[in-house]
Amino acid sequence: MTDAFTATRRPGEQALAALGLGAPDLSPADASPYSFPGGGRWRTEIPSVEGPEALAVVLKEASRLDVPVHRISQGSGVWMLTDAEITEMAEATAERGIELCLFTGPRGTWDIGGSVRTDSRGAGVRARGHDAVAGCVEDAVRATELGVRCLLVADEGVLWTLHRARGSGILPADTTLKVSALIGPVNPAAYAVYERLGADSVNVPSDLTLHHLTEIRRVSAAPMDMYLEAPDDLGGYVRMYEIAELIRRGAPLYLKFGLSRAPGIYPYGAHLRDLTLDTARERVRRGRLALDLLARHGADGGMAPLGSRLPGDLSRFPAERSAG
What we know:
Blueprint: H1 13-18, E1 42-46, H2 52-65, E2 71-73, H3 83-95, E3 99-103, H4 129-145, E4 150-153, H5 156-167, E5 176-179, H6 188-197, E6 201-203, H7 210-217, E7 224-227, H8 243-250, E8 253-256, H9 273-296
Parallel strand pairs: 1-2, 1-8, 2-3, 3-4, 4-5, 5-6, 6-7, 7-8
C-alpha cells in the first residue's frame, strides 16, 4: 500500500531542516494498511454529550465551526436518560447521518463494592456480578428499541454477551459495539481479543506510543478510537501535533475531541447543566483546532464519508450455541 502521508508536511519540518535538525524520513512499513469500508482513514467523534440539550449545543456549534461529525457518544449511561430523551437524541442524530453511541449499564466504580476505592482500584469499571451484566443488557435492549444503533461497553463479558445478542436477533444486527477507554487495551494481543469478542471499535488509552499503534495494526483491522485530548481522569494528554501520524499508523481511526482540565460530569444531571453545555461547546472547538492543524500540514484528505458508521469485516470468536 502506498503511504499517502509521506507527502504531508510534518510540524516544524522546513524550519528545522534549514537548521540541520530535520527528522528521519517516515517509514512506509509503519503505516496502517487498513481503512474504513467505503473509503476513508479517519472519522470524528464528539464524546461526553450527556443529553438532548448538550446534543443541540454540539450540533449548532459543529455547524457554526464547520466541524464534520461521524459519531456522538454519551458517558453517563442509558439508565440516566428518559425514553423521551433517548428518542430525541436518536432522531436528531439520524436526521444528520450521525451515529449515536450510548453507554450501557452499571459499572463497578458506581457499585457498592469497596475494592474499586482501594489503591489497586479492584475490578475498576467492569460489571460486578450477574445483576450488573443484566442491567447492561437491559440498557442495550431499551436503547436499541428506541432507535440507538451503537452501544458503549466497559466489560469483556458484557461485550461478548451483546455480540451474541445481536447475532441471535435480540439486538438489531446492525448494532455496533464500542469498547470504552476505561478498559482500553494496551497491547496488540488484548486488542485482537476485543475484536474477536465483538468490538466494532476499540478506544485505546491516549498514552500509547506511535509504535504501539503500529504493533496493533499488525494483528487487527478493528477501528480504533483515540482521544486527541484526554480527560484528566484518563491522563489529560494533548496530542494534537501528532494527529497526522496517529492517522497514518492507527487507521481506521476515530479522532475523539476530548477536553482536559475540566471537571467530571458523570453521572450527568441538571446540577451540572452549565458545565456540561460549556464543555460540549469547547469539545467542538477543539475539533476545529485539530482539523485546522491537519489542513495546515496537508494531511486533511482521507476522511471517511459523513454518514458512514459500519466497521467492515472483522474477526470473531465462534459464538457458542445455547443449551437445549
